[in-house]
Amino acid sequence: MNKKIQTDAVDHLFEAILCLKSKEECYDFFEDLCTVNELLSLSQRYEVASMLKDRKTYLEIADKTGASTATISRVNRSLNYGNDGYGLVFGRLDNPAK
């Protein structure tokens, strides 16, 4: 695995996230880990990705999420040229049996 972000510290963080078992545990952990603004930014990017997947326009996305066109463009670039992490999650949410 040749990931730009792969370090022991990131591995430890992902192992911690993978051990969470409920939405409530996620809230507790991420509220301790992130600032409110960091968490809101992450959730905004995820919403932008979801809306792009559903073929919403930049204007619709900006109006609904408050995201800047620069953020929407960055997320769109990740959807089209990234590691397909969004696609993996969307696929599993759409079909939980996978």
Automatic annotation (TrEMBL):
Signal peptide: none annotated. This is TrpR YerC/YecD. It comes from the Bacteria. Gene3D superfamilies: TrpR-like. It holds the Pfam family Trp_repressor. One of its GO terms (molecular function) is sequence-specific DNA binding.
